[in-house]
Task: inverse folding
């Protein structure tokens, strides 16, 4: 038998098995209770978010880890882009800071297909460098309005419930601050704390850039 045909015959069962193997289309987090995050501002106002580990498991895990360790406590609202979003989570306060590592971007342009969340009003999503899909760390943005052009480009990972009038009022108040020419609030509001109720579940973060690397 011709050698090339022999190789093809030997490979055929493997190819058929690969073709028939089911692809994962449902997150293992789909059936567990969703964590709840509360951002409390220094003035006592709050925003409550439902986080979605089924859509963005590592992004949610990272946010939980940072928030419950107190990483965000005392940080400011750094930038507000009127009618678009507000931005925070930078320990340097100028768009350059992070936690000392980065995480994968869980969005479709990065080949991740389970995240179907849209950047609607009240959605929280991760900042990243424009040319680096693996550069998210701690900075996040919260949508004041719906901007679907961000879908698939950034890792949305939670939302304010549409019925939560208090959280939406806080969001609108923060987005209504007076700004300088660089879109920085003239009087920068402080985050007193961010805490996440994990509903009894444990979340593990996979990171880049630390000496102990993966976890």
Result:
């Amino acid at each position: 038998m011709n050698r090339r045909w022999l190789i093809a015959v030997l490979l055929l069962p493997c190819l058929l098995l690969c073709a028939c193997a089911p692809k994962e289309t449902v997150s293992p987090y789909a059936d567990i209770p969703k964590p709840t995050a509360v951002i409390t501002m220094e003035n006592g106002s709050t925003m409550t978010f439902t986080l979605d580990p089924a859509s963005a498991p590592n992004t949610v895990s990272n946010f939980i880890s940072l928030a419950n360790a107190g990483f965000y406590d005392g940080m400011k609202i750094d930038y507000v882009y009127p009618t678009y979003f507000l931005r925070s989570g930078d320990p340097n306060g100028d768009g350059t800071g992070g936690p000392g590592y980065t995480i994968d971007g869980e969005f479709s342009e990065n080949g991740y297909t389970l995240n179907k969340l849209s950047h609607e009003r009240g959605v929280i999503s991760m900042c990243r460098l424009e040319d680096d899909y693996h550069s998210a760390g701690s900075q996040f943005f919260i949508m004041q309005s719906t901007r679907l052009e961000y879908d698939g480009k950034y890792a949305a990972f939670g939302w304010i419930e549409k019925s939560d009038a208090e959280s939406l009022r806080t969001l609108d108040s923060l987005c209504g601050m007076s700004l300088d020419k660089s879109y920085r609030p003239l009087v920068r509001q402080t985050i007193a704390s961010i805490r996440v109720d994990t509903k009894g579940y444990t979340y593990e973060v996979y990171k880049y850039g630390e000496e102990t690397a993966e976890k």
User: Anything to note?
Assistant: Residues 1-23, 211-215 have pLDDT under 50 and may be disordered. The two ends are 51 Å apart (CA to CA). Helices lie at 3-20, 57-68, 165-175.
